[in-house]
Design a protein that fits this description.
By secondary structure, the chain is an alpha+beta fold. The chain has a single domain (about 20-110), classed as Arc Repressor Mutant, subunit A, CATH 1.10.10.10. It has helices at about 20-40, 45-50, 60-75, 100-110; strands spanning about 40-45, 75-85, 95-100. A three-stranded antiparallel beta sheet has the order 1-3-2. The radius of gyration is 15 Å and the shape is globular.
Length: about 110
């Protein structure tokens, strides 16, 4: 597969693959998000997905939000605020930011 360079000469990252089923996708992405939560830093979902080149879920419009709700329900993250998205297709729209909890940091240390 050939990749078209951008106008500035840089080579863009290829699109992330899309998972076929939700349960397999969840098992793939869960550890990366619990690791991010254990750092205690504030992050967006897209930042973690892009950093680790995680696959998109079968239904991205619903499943990314569901992932974060599950992580919150399990005590790994809490809502931290809002930021402008760094996702190229969102035109810097507002997105939720998340922060790892003390419990997430403790579970990483155990």
């Amino acid at each position: 597969m050939t990749v078209q360079p951008a106008l500035d000469g840089t080579i863009p990252n290829p699109p992330r693959p899309r998972a076929d089923d939700y349960e397999t996708w969840l098992a793939t992405v869960w550890p990366k998000f619990t690791e991010a939560a254990a750092t205690g830093r504030t992050f967006t979902t897209y930042e973690i997905a892009e950093q680790h080149r995680l696959p998109d879920p079968p239904n991205p419009q619903a499943h990314w939000g569901r992932l974060m709700t599950l992580l919150q329900d399990h005590g790994y993250v809490r809502k931290a605020g809002w930021a402008n998205s760094s996702r190229p297709t969102t035109h810097h729209s507002g997105v939720r930011t998340w922060k790892g909890t003390a419990a997430a940091r403790r579970s990483a240390a155990a």
